[in-house]
């Protein structure tokens, strides 16, 4: 079955991973801007990174007939430096018209600090002014519920933000209802230790349904699997879910969300 991985960091993956994903019938991916494994010290470093996301990675993916899309931001792990963050945010409009850019992301919180909240809201301001889709990063482990609540409060306090144009990612059992009840899209990440297993993700789908929800691998520098979405497909098949229901989760839903992007061409 063809699938889409709407959140994977291919800059951290080898070309062999593209090949394996192609063999598994990956149709398209989107790559949110994120941490590089270290804190970058200058806006020029981010400028080069944005060039990689909008030029180099699409070409690398195309070798394996995978469509590559991306999101732009300074991520929450580096948002504590507000001055640097503002310099990076000022660079983003230059890239928003690139054909593979879906919007602003993955923005959010890491440790739920005041500086992270400031930078998050300044990203929101940019997205609102440019009418961009928004992809949200929610914190890990013990910080997740508080951070998700803070994020949703900030989203709802900005009346310019349309919930249907926002995806709250990394939801788990205790945060998925917050996002769905707010009218947002949701992403479930199939990632060892700090996120969901395929079995847990299917449990959530069986409890909350398949509307406005998608799954991803968030494959990055850490221990992670770019074939996590096919693992979920197998788990759904094992439990007797129909091909139509599985396709909605792993293909139709991310595509429906992406189609709202300013740059989208069918």
Automatic annotation (TrEMBL):
One of its GO terms (molecular function) is metal ion binding. Pfam families: TatD_DNase. The keyword Hydrolase applies. InterPro entries: Metal_Hydrolase, TatD-like, UCP005295. Keywords: Hydrolase, Metal-binding. The keyword Hydrolase applies. Belongs to the metallo-dependent hydrolases superfamily. PANTHER family: HYDROLASE TATD. This is TatD family hydrolase.
């Amino acid at each position: 079955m063809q699938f889409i991985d709407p959140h994977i960091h291919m800059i951290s993956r080898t070309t062999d991973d593209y090949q394996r994903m192609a063999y598994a019938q990956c149709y398209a991916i989107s790559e949110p801007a994120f941490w590089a494994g270290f804190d970058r010290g200058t806006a020029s470093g981010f400028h080069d990174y944005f060039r990689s996301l909008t030029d180099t990675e699409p070409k690398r993916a195309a070798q394996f007939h995978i469509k590559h899309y991306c999101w732009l931001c300074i991520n929450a792990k580096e948002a504590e430096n507000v001055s640097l963050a503002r310099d990076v945010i000022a660079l983003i409009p230059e890239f928003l018209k690139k054909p593979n850019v879906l919007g602003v992301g993955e923005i959010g919180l890491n440790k739920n600090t005041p500086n992270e909240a400031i930078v998050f809201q300044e990203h929101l301001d940019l997205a609102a002014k440019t009418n961009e889709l928004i992809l949200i990063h929610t914190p890990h482990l013990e910080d997740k519920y508080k951070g998700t609540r803070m994020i949703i409060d900030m989203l709802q306090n900005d009346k310019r933000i349309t919930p249907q144009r926002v995806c709250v990612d990394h939801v788990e059992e205790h945060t998925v209802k917050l996002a769905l009840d707010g009218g947002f899209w949701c992403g479930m990440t199939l990632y060892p230790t700090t996120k969901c297993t395929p079995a847990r993700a299917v449990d959530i789908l069986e409890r909350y349904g398949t509307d406005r929800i998608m799954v991803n691998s968030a494959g990055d520098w850490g221990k992670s699997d770019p074939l996590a979405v096919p693992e979920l497909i197998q788990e759904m098949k094992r439990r007797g879910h129909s091909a139509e229901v599985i396709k909605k989760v792993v293909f139709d839903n991310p595509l429906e969300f992406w189609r709202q992007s300013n740059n989208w061409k069918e």
